[in-house]
Amino acid sequence: MGGSIFMLLDCDEQLFMAYKQRSKKGAENILATWLEAESNLQEDPKILGTSLSPNLFLVNEETAKNIAFSTARKYWGHVSTEMQIYFDKYGLDSKFVNERLSAFFYTQKGKDTFFEQLFAQHTIDLERLIWLVFGKRMQIAMPVNELQSIILYKFQDEYLVHMMYKEHASFWHWLFTKKVYSLLIHKPLEQFTFLYEIMGHFEHSVRENCEHVDNFVNNYKAILDKCITHVDKHNASCLAKKQLRLYQIVTHYCLSEGDFNRVKSFITSFEAEWRYSMYALSEKEKVLIAYILFHIANREQQSENVIHYGEYLLEDERINNYAIEILLEYKELLPNRKPTPPAIIKNYQLNYLENLYAILLEHYVKMARYEDGLLLLKEHVLASNKKINSSLVQKNFSSEQLIAIEAYVQQDIALHVNNSLQHIGLSVEEWRRNYRQPNAPYYVVAQSASLHMLNILRVLFVTEQYELFEKLMEIYKKYLLIDDHFESLRMFISAYV
Question: 301, exposed or middle or buried, with CB in 10 Å at 0-12, 13-18, 19+?
Answer without folding.
Answer: exposed
